[in-house]
Design goal:
- There is one protein chain.
- This protein is 34% helix and 12% strand.
- It has two domains: 136 residues, no CATH class; 135 residues, Cytochrome Bc1 Complex, Chain D, domain 2, CATH 1.10.760.10.
- Strand 1 and strand 2 form a beta hairpin.
- It is built from twelve helices and five strands.
- The radius of gyration is 24 Å and the shape is flat.
- The chain is α+β, with helices and mostly antiparallel strands.
- Helix 7 crosses helix 12.
- The structure holds heme C.
- Heme C (HEC) binds next to helix 12.
C-alpha cells in the first residue's frame, strides 16, 4: 500500500502533538519564587537596571537612564579606607531593577533578607539610591541579598560617584544597551551550553542567574565566540579598543564589523576623528605601502565605545 507510510507518520505526529499539549496544559507552571536569585542575577539586575530594550525613556537606545557600577576603597561618608566594595549607583530618576520594584521575583530568601536587612522597600527612585550585595543566612543557608545602603548607611549617589572617581566607575549598564542596539547578539551568544563549551567558554549559567534580567540577550545563533565570561579571558582595554575600531588590527581574518563610529566625532583630547582618512591609511598599510597601521584614537570618557567596553570587560 502506497499510503501506509503516511498513516503511520500522521499517527506518530498526532501522538507527539497531543503529548506536548498535555504537558503544556497539565504540568504545573514554574513558580519563579521557588528559584532564588543567585548573586549573579542580583549583580546583573543592579548593573543593567530596569530594562535594556526599546522603551519610551530611551527610544533611540543611547544607554540613558542606567545605573553605574563603582568600586570603592574609601567610605563615602567618613572618608576612611575600607575593603574594596562594589556599589551600584542609581542617580535620581534612574529606574530600579525589577527585583526592587517586585521583590517576589528575587525568590524566597533573597526577598526576605533584602526587605528585612537590606531595607530595599525604603528606596525611592525619584531621590536615587545606592545598593550593595551582601550575604546573610536564610533557613540555615548562605543567601545573597540586596542592601539599600542609602537607607542603612546614608550613602548618597553623588557622594559615592565622587568618592569612586571616573576611573573606578563602570558604564556596563549603558554598554548592554549598546550590545543590543549594535546587534552583537547576531553573532555572539551569552550562553555557554552544557557541552564541551564548558572547557572553552566557561561555566554555563543556572536558572537563578536570570531572575529579573530583561532582556537576557542569549544571542540568536553562534557565529563567533561566546562572550558570557569574556572579561575573564581577556581583560585588556587596549586590545578591546583596537579590536572594536577595526577587528582586522588584531585578528587578520576576522569577519566582525568595525565599530569605529562608536568613538563619536572627537577623541579624548578633543581632536576630530576622521574615519575616511583612517580607512585610507589602513588600506595603504594593508597593501604594504606603510609599515604600521594608523593609530586608534583614545576615546572620550562619555563615548559609546567606553560604555560597550565597560560592558564587555564586566562579563566575568
Ligand atoms: C558578523 C559577526 C559579528 C558581529 C556582528 C560581532 N562580532 Fe565580535 N567577533 C566575531 C568573530 C568572528 C570573532 C572572533 C574573531 C575576532 O576576534 O575578531 C569575534 C570576537 C569578538 C571578541 C573577542 C572574543 C574572545 O573570545 O576573545 C569580542 C569581545 C567581541 N567579538 C565583541 C563583540 C561585540 C561587543 C559586538 C557588537 C558591538 C560584536 N562582537 C559583533 C564576529 C562578530
Amino acid at each position: 500500500m502506497a499510503f501506509r507510510e503516511y498513516n503511520v507518520g500522521s499517527i506518530c505526529f498526532g501522538i507527539a502533538l497531543a503529548g506536548s499539549m498535555m504537558i503544556t496544559i497539565f504540568f504545573p507552571t514554574g513558580d519563579i519564587s521557588n528559584i532564588p536569585a543567585t548573586e549573579i542575577s542580583l549583580d546583573k539586575q543592579l548593573t543593567y537596571g530596569y530594562e535594556s530594550g526599546f522603551n519610551y525613556w530611551d527610544p533611540f537606545l543611547n544607554g540613558k537612564n542606567k545605573p553605574l557600577k563603582v568600586t570603592l576603597t574609601k567610605d563615602p561618608v567618613t572618608g576612611q579606607p575600607m575593603d574594596k566594595t562594589v556599589a551600584y549607583v542609581f542617580k535620581p530618576g534612574v529606574k530600579f531593577p525589577n527585583g526592587i520594584y517586585k521583590p517576589r521575583i528575587l525568590g524566597h530568601g533573597p526577598k526576605e533578607l533584602s526587605e528585612r536587612l537590606g531595607r530595599i522597600s525604603a528606596a525611592d527612585d525619584s531621590k536615587g539610591a545606592v545598593f550593595v550585595i551582601k550575604h546573610g543566612t536564610y533557613k540555615g543557608k548562605e543567601t545573597p541579598y540586596i542592601e539599600n545602603v542609602t537607607a542603612t548607611k546614608g550613602w548618597q549617589p553623588e557622594k559615592v560617584l565622587a568618592t569612586a572617581g571616573d576611573a573606578n566607575t563602570s558604564y556596563a549598564g549603558a554598554g548592554k544597551t549598546m550590545f543590543i542596539r549594535e546587534g552583537c547578539w547576531w553573532c555572539h551568544t551569552l550562553l555557554p551550553e552544557e557541552t564541551q563549551d564548558w572547557q572553552t567558554f566557561g561555566r554555563p549559567p543556572m536558572t537563578g542567574d536570570f531572575n529579573g534580567e530583561s532582556p537576557t540577550a542569549f544571542g540568536s545563533d553562534r557565529k563567533a565566540p561566546d562572550l558570557l565570561h569574556v572579561g575573564s579571558r581577556n581583560s585588556s582595554r587596549e586590545w578591546m579598543m583596537l579590536h572594536f575600531f577595526n577587528p582586522r588590527l588584531v585578528q587578520p581574518h576576522s569577519i566582525m564589523p568595525r565599530y569605529n563610529y562608536l568613538w563619536g566625532k572627537t577623541d579624548a583630547h578633543g581632536n576630530p576623528i576622521d574615519l575616511a582618512k583612517w580607512s585610507k591609511e589602513y588600506q595603504e598599510f594593508y597593501e604594504g605601502k606603510r609599515i604600521y597601521p594608523p593609530e586608534v584614537p583614545d576615546y572620550r570618557p562619555d563615548s559609546e565605545i567606553r560604555y560597550l567596553i565597560d560592558f564587555v570587560l564586566n562579563l566575568k
